[in-house]
Design goal:
The protein is mainly alpha-helical. Helices cover 63% and strands 4% of the residues. It has one domain. It starts with a strand and ends with a helix.
Amino acid sequence: MLTTEGLVLIDWDTVLVAPPERDLWSLDPGDGTVLDAYADATGSVPMPALLELYRLRWDIADVAVDVSRFRRPHVGNADDDKSWELLSSLVERLTSRCAT
C-alpha cells in the first residue's frame, strides 16, 4: 500500500483492528528495542500484560492445532515426529511460564 511515508507491506492474512500489542509481541526480541522504538514513534507505550496475553494466546492456539492433528489418524512419519517435538517443547514452555 502506498502511504504518505512510502510503500508499506500489509499482511492481510492476520490483519485486524486491535491493540498494538497484538502484533508487537511477535516483533519483540526480548531486549526492549522494538517496544522502545514503537513508543518513541507513536507516543504509546506497549502494555507488558497485553504483550504476554497475546504471546500466550498464540501458543495456546498452536497447541490446539497440534492436538487436533494428533487426535486424527497419522502415520508416524518424519513430519509427525517434528510436529510432536514442537508440541512437546511448546507445552514445556507454557508449563514453565504458568508456574511463575
